[in-house]
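Bug: token stream looks shifted between consecutive jobs. Job 1:
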Amino acid sequence: MLGNSTPISSYPLPTPLARLSLAIPILLAAGVPASAGPPQGDPLSFFEGRTETAGTIRVLMRKPYRTRSVGHGRMERDGSLTLVQRVHDDDGQPSRERRWKVRRLGAQRFTAAMTEAVGPVQIDKVGQSYRFRFKMKGNLTAEQWMTLLPGGRSARNTLKVRRMGITVATSTGVVRKV
């Protein structure tokens, strides 16, 4: 369910898929220590309120472009996180809304539904980072890593999108709690 109505498989390159690179950083920043905001053991609360993300997307055989998003998150009564992002890319496409619903599965595991993913998003804590893995339309797979930066209010994000094992898009960015 991409922000536009064009099927992803009709794009010559997975530009819309690479846009996910800044959605994931917001969720991956969940490793923020208790002193930076959320209570220890409750990383989802980091996303309550406003977050901002900025980065660069590189798609195979295309000029890199900047992307940014503003997210508004709220913790639900059941402990899940609802996150709505407004995404703006400098690639000529109109801005769009992305929605997340994230639930905790265990101490170091989460699952999420996201409008641009096909099926669930698997989120695992690996050391001090979070790894997101998910599938997308067009036979694409994505793996994203978020690592907390000093100060605990921002995190570095890296994303790789692959088609048939070949990297077709990458992204780097930073998410910060506002």
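Job 2, same session, no restart:
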Amino acid sequence: MKKKGIIFSIVGIFIIIRNSMINKERSYNAIRESERVNAINRTMFHWISNHVDEAFFEEYFRKRRISKIAIYGTASLGELFFYYVKNSGVEIAYLMDKAISDTGYFQEIPLFGLDYEGEIPEVDAIIVTPVYYFDEIKNDLEARKIKAKKILSIERIVSV
């Protein structure tokens, strides 16, 4: 009888510890998701409050002697940025995203996954649009030796 009681106690303690760890992980993930959404909202706030438009980007890049860019990130901010820049005097050499497993084209612009092994054109700057993951993405791009003179966050650009 005592053995069963001890075993049930140990199992009960294990279940409590495991549930506590699961709840901590869920809380961590919820906080991280909240921070990610806040970073996107902050970027959009700056975009709107600074009256960012095609001319803003064209001037920003001209002043910094950036004429050929790549866009990293194909979600909402990346797509929005693409449409703002595509008709400016800035050349979009390619689009890149970690979620893409193969190569392709988006409106005649080459599209590469981060794991692409072939030749990727050199650019003056890569503009990273997943703002919450900027440091991680920058490290990935530098580790892969992607040819770019600068790696910039869209959040920083629209916050000027």
